[in-house]
Amino acid sequence: MIVLGIESSCDDTGAAVVKDGKELSNIVASQDDVHAPFGGIVPELAARNHVLHILPVIEKALRDADLTLDDIDGIAATRGPGLVGSLLVGLCAAKAIARARDLPFVGVNHIEGHLLSGELDAAVPRPFLGLVVSGGHSALYLAREDRTFGLLGQTRDDAAGEAFDKAAKLLGLGYPGGREIQRVAETGNPQAMRLPRPRVRGAELDMSFSGLKTALWQELEKHPELDVPDVAASFQEAVVDTLAKTTRRALQRVDVKALVVTGGVSANTPLRERMAEVARDEGVELHVPALSRCTDNAAMIAYAGWQKLVRGERDALDLNAVATLPIGPRVEIPVS
Fold first, then answer.
1. How far apart are CA 113 and CA 20, in angstroms?
2. Separation of alpha carbons 151 and 329, rounded Å
3. Would you give the distance in Å from CA 30 to the centre of its chain?
4. Do 91 and 63 contact (CB within 8 A), yes or no?
5. What sections of 109-152 are H helices per DSSP?
6. CB under 8 Å to 276, separation ≥6 — which residues?
7. How far is CA 203 from the centre of its chain?
8. What is the pLDDT of residues 143-184, one digit of tens each?
9. What residues contact residue 107 under an 8 Å CB cut-off, 6+ apart?
10. What b/e readout covers 62-95, taking b as 16+ CB neighbours within 10 angstroms?
11. Which 8-state DSSP code applies to residue 328?
């Protein structure tokens, strides 16, 4: 089965083609330059730019796969979670193609797409622990053998990627913040500034990054003379350390065979290195998607959609976009 996938949950417009679970193409139109002057995503601008990019991106995905719409057997699109204005652009395009071509259509949960994205590179044994860490999400999920998911923990405020963006803005760096902080931090000392590793009382698998951002601001106010690379390296170390320690606690409390780390922040090199240590120490396989599939992309949506379509799942063409879309109930883990 050949599936065309469309992703437009935030600010990246994506289209991809997957054939029998294998990626044939994966095209992303970035809006970084559009949102850079604001230091973050402006929802209205994101939606308008999706309208401009959606058809060219779909056409290029088909060309790169050496296919046409006549070859497509099914359509998948992100239906949530995300920015509703952005989601509607991709979802409406997908439903229009499905209607015009009389093709089966499915809506895909953006988080499920991230969690399954590692399977495009190699088989991932279940059950596995999934860390989705990006500009909008920082959460730990249990992926069971029956293909259901449970939420183990999540951020109570800012996501890690959002914290990177805000820290970069405080330091006068560019956007996206995570990429800029990693670049500047390469020449910095990660021990130069003392920053907290936030914990959530009574919920040891939840995270919090708002206080870390505030601590950075306070330190900069007190010590404006601090070297920017040192500050960037110290902040990056605090974020990576927080994610690694929380993930380690989760691995020690659930019986899994693998760890999947995905989302835009999973492109961060120090985080990848630290997660490799955690996985090795805890005796599980580590799966991190290729860099092209760490940030928002349509290959993961096409792949998740392909699985649904093969199982015989179908969605009606009145399916709507949803800003908040859980993929499973909260799984309560006893506090040690």
1. 16
2. 6
3. 15
4. no
5. 110-116
6. 286
7. 23
8. 999 999 999 999 999 999 999 999 999 999 988 899 999 999
9. 76, 77, 78, 79, 80, 91, 315, 319
10. beebebeeeebebbbbbbbbbbbbbbbbbbbbbb
11. S
Placement of tokens 């604001």 in the chain: 38
Q: Which residues, other chains included, contact 231 with Cβ-Cβ below 8 Å and sequence gap of 6+?
A: 171, 188, 192, 193, 216, 219, 220
pLDDT tens digits, one per residue of 115-153: 999 999 999 999 999 999 998 899 999 999 999 999 999
Mean pLDDT of 235-257: 97
Cα–Cα distance for residue pair 301/190, rounded to 1 Å: 36
Radius of gyration of the chain (CA): 20
Give Cα separations from 148 to 24, 34, 107, 112, 324 (angstroms). 27, 37, 16, 10, 18
Beta bridge partners of 330: 151
Hey, where are the domains in the chain?
2-115+293-310, 123-288
59 vs 188: CA distance, rounded Å: 43
d(CA 32, CA 12): 9
CATH number of 123-288: 3.30.420.40
Using CA atoms, how far apart are residues 305 and 7, in angstroms rounded to an integer? 11
> What angle do helix axes 177-185 and 160-170 make, rounded to 10 degrees?
60
User: If you ran DSSP here, which 8-state letter would residue 129 be given?
Assistant: E
Q: State the Cα–Cα distance between residues 50 and 43, nearest whole angstrom.
A: 11
What's the chain's length in residues?
336
Of 3.30.420.40, 3.40.50.300, 3.10.20.30, 3.90.550.10, the CATH number of 2-115+293-310 is: 3.30.420.40
pLDDT over 70 (residue 335):
no
